[in-house]
Amino acid sequence: EGAEAEKPTEAVMDKISFLFNNLSHTNMIAKKEELIGMINDLGDPFIRWLSQYIVMKRASIEQNYQPLYNQFVQAIANPQLDEYIRRETFRNIKILLRTDKRQNAGANYSDRQLLKNLGMWLGAITIARSRPILLKELDLKSLLLEAYYKGQSELLFVVPFISKILLSCSKTPIFSASCAWIRSILKILAELHNEPDLKINLKFEIEVLCKELNVDLNSLPIEGILKDTDKLLRVPQQLSDLKIL
Amino acid sequence: ELALLGVTQYYAFVQEKQKVHCLNTLFRKLQINQSIIFCNSTQRVELLAKKITEIGYSCYYIHSKMAQNHRNRVFHDFRQGNCRNLVCSDLLTRGIDIQAVNVVINFDFPRNAETYLHRIGRSGRFGHLGIAINLITYDDRHTLRRIEQELRTHIEPIPKAVDPKLYVADHQLVDD
């Protein structure tokens, strides 16, 4: 899993930057042709760099234009580009999950926002397109349990992130709230919501999600999963290690 | 109450005939979410908007000679993000408060400090970042210094590379 993709020439980067600065629904067809032309000319290394650019410079920061970029990528319909974008999205998410959650309030804050944006983007390119998120890519349920076990700072990162991913469930019949995978995650969120000392903004986050998915929060059974300490200890670790004082 | 807090201001020294070329360079080097480009007259707004649309920009325009309901419509669509850039004359009297606008360009430099403040200033909202870029011709050089003094602010020459932290962090600082 390499980090930085090899950069194309400055002229190419300028062209891409101009293209994305001016992309809109009305000119999408023309811009699409232009980009497909560049992909054909420049080949695989360019596609690799482009997917990194789309994820890191555009989707993760310009949350307001995620639907536009998503539509654009789908219009280009290049399986290689899709695959690289998917990988790049997971790679960035994993980096953010592994950062230390208890340091530096400022960076912490923007990391949380980036993670939320990436969650929304991930939902859009997987769930909303009726494609699953595989356990080996990202284990959402375990992530929640791990965050609960590790504490409040971790929950502040993870709960909004998971909620943003699951918002996409309203866009597909396959992964609706009644599908077993999604329901098992919602049940844990409901149990978290039931915890008296959960931060109010996280409770709100969960309520908003349920409302969006037309799920009655009170109808979700509380099965005491969070009380199963043995299980919590055995969960695969996706966040940074806790520093023991 | 308008303030220049959070706005990093730059100028680029250009000749009138180089302005469009300079604009193109900015659009190739900056990361723009949405931008507003100001001109000093309604004719120049229309001319510029037409010209840059032809060369592949996504842009709308509004100016003071358009009917109010038409203006509202365009501004509303721009706010919705239907288009990335807005070319306009001086009619936004209360400062821009569109979160997604992270770049404001004075294609024509205004003649007085009040207009400058109305174009560049942000209404409240602590931590909302952006950059403002002024295209300055030889004739504008004294106005630039005067406005800088009147507003007690600094307008620096634009560096080769603008630090993205100064203007692409918007969404990381608002809400929550």
CA-based shape of chain B: globular
What helical percentage do the residues of chain B reach? 25-40%
Percent of residues in β-strands of chain B: 15-25%
Largest interface: A-B, 26 and 26 residues
Radius of gyration over C-alpha positions of chain A, nearest whole angstrom: 19 Å
Determine the mean pLDDT of chain A: 93
- Sheet with the most strands of chain A? none
Written as H for each helix and E for each strand, in order along the chain, the element string of chain A is HHHHHHHHHH
Q: Which class best fits the helix and strand makeup of chain B? A: alpha/beta
* Structural classification of chain A: mainly alpha
Number of strands of chain B: 9
Strand content of chain A: under 5%
Write out key terms for the chains shown.
heterodimer; A: 245 residues; mainly alpha; 10 helices; 64% helix; 0% strand; globular; B: 176 residues; alpha/beta; seven-stranded parallel sheet; two-stranded antiparallel sheet; 9 strands
Characterise the protein shown here.
The complex is a heterodimer of chains A (245) and B (176). Chain A has helices spanning 10-21, 28-59, 66-76, 79-98, 105-125, 140-150, 152-166, 180-194, 200-212, 229-234. Chain A is mainly α and 245 residues long. The longest helix of chain A is centred in the first third of the chain and has 32 residues, at 28-59. The radius of gyration of chain A is 19 Å and the shape is globular. The two termini of chain A are 33 Å apart. With 176 residues, chain B is an alpha/beta fold. In chain B, 33% of the residues lie in helices and 22% in strands. In chain B, helix 3 links the parallel strand 4 and strand 5 (85-88). Residues 170-176 of chain B have low confidence and may be disordered. The chains are: A mainly alpha (245), B alpha/beta (176). Chain A binds chain B through residues 14-15, 17-18, 21-27, 30, 57, 61-65, 68, 109-110, 112-114, 117, 201, and chain B through 24, 27-33, 35, 56-59, 81-85, 99-100, 168-169, 171-173, 176.
